[in-house]
Amino acid sequence: MARPTIYSAKLATSILTRMISGESVRSICSDDSMPDKSTVFQWVADDKEGFSDRYAKAFQARMVIHADELLDIADDGTNDYMLRENPDGDAAYAVNGEAVARSRLRVDTRKWLLSKLTTRYSDGKEEDNKVDLAEVISKLLDKLPN
To answer: What per-residue confidence (pLDDT) applies to 141?
Structure first.
């Protein structure tokens, strides 16, 4: 079955719903039942039936999900420590550097993404009162103990 290329309200709603749930356009469009991402971006560019505005709102909602994920990742200490056996046979907990480094990478990636994309989709209104969500989150995370 060929990928869909014709815009439909049902297909657009499916894409936007998945975006609002946190999925990336790349991930959504890797599904064979979805159009290629270039098709979706063309719909945005052409503003098919108001798709551009709906896409921007779904994108902003996804940014909030990324912000929530930052807190979840930072608060999750699962696998930060591992029980390891010493050469003398005693067991002791030790820092699992790989898990900690992976969590830091996940946090840093989302922080970077938020810092680059939240201003890109700003509507330009209330610029003086606008809070830079990525900056606020970054400062809060920097205060967390390592």
So the answer is: 58
**Chain position carrying tokens 């201003």:** 119
Give the number of other Cβ atoms within 10 Å of residue 62's Cβ.
Answer: 21
pLDDT tens per residue across span 30-44: 999 999 999 999 999
Element (H, E) at 82: strand 81-85
115 vs 136: CA distance, rounded Å:
10
Global pTM value: 0.64
In the block, residue with structure tokens 């297909």: 11
Residues facing residue 93 across a β-bridge: 83
Q: Which two tokens stand for residue 133?
A: 């969500």
In whole angstroms, how far apart are CA 99 and each of 71, 104, 111, 131, 146?
Answer: 16, 9, 18, 32, 13
Contact predicate 92/129, CB 8 Å = no
Question: Any alpha helices (H) in 1-132, and if so which ranges?
Answer: 9-20, 25-29, 37-46, 51-75, 97-117
